[in-house]
Each structure stands twice: as structure tokens, then as C-alpha cells.
């Protein structure tokens, strides 16, 4: 996946890991609600990035995607180098405070980022809160109208 893959599309980005037992299951249950509403819109994507690429291999992510009913045409489960993933979370999406904690660094954030078709972050939403998910849906609807 590259910038060209998402150019002209609006999307929600998140960072999670498949073995999480705290916030990630709630986040992805809420993401399923967002996905259900927009999965038939060809200009919409969800980008779910792992923060634990050593554990979350492509087959693990594929099984996790199936568990959440995700179709690869518009809900992508992504991996890469930990360094690149963390840089993206911090610099592209602003989803944590940007503090590098050394070799044991680990991003564990509940934030979703809504990105417009020009690659601009339009909002941040707590993926564990129903009110924020409702606001995210309202903001996606506004993006569709623009």
C-alpha cells in the first residue's frame, strides 16, 4: 500500500494489535459499525495498522479481518516495519504524544483518525467511546457531501 493506493479516498486509520485484550476489541467492534455503514461506498477505506508486526503476520491479520467480517476491497489490515508503523502513527496521524520510549517502545492508543481524499487528518476520535463513533459517522457523512 502506498499514498497512491488511498489518493482521492477518505478513510479511517487506527492502530491495534490482534492479541490485545483491553481496548482493541472494543475499538474494532466500534469500527465494525463504521464499516457496516460505509462498506458499499467505493471512496471509503479503513486502514487498520498493527503495532505488533512481529506477532501480527499477514496470515494472523487475515484471520483477524475475517473475524470482523472485513472485505479487503475497503478494510485493509496492514503491517510493515515497527519503525515505519510507529512513525506513521505519530507523524502522519498524530495518534499518540510522539514520545519515543527506546527499544521497548509500544504504541497502544484508542484514537481513530479520519483522513480526507487529499490526505488531511480531519478529526481524531476515541475508538472506545460511542459518542465519538457517532461523531465520526457524522463527520464522514459531511465528507461525503463535500
What is the averaged pLDDT score?
89
> How many β-strands, per DSSP?
5
Radius of gyration: 14 Å
Distance between the termini: 26 Å
What sequence of helices (H) and strands (E) makes up the elements?
HEHEHEHEEH
How can the largest sheet be summarized?
5 strands, mixed
- The dominant shape is globular
Structural class assignment: alpha/beta
Low-confidence stretches: none
Neighbour order of strands in the largest sheet: 3-2-1-4-5
Measured by DSSP, the beta-strand proportion falls in 15-25%
Q: What does the model show?
A:
The chain has five helices and five strands, in the order αβαβαβαββα. The protein has helices at 3-6, 23-38, 58-67, 82-92, 130-145, and strands at residues 10-16, 44-50, 75-78, 111-115, 121-126. The protein has a five-stranded mixed beta sheet, with helices on both faces. α2 (23-38) packs parallel to α5. The longest helix has 16 residues, at 23-38.
How would you concisely characterize the structure shown here?
This protein is an alpha/beta fold. It has five helices and five strands, in the order αβαβαβαββα. The protein has helices at residues 3-6, 23-38, 58-67, 82-92, 130-145; strands at residues 10-16, 44-50, 75-78, 111-115, 121-126.
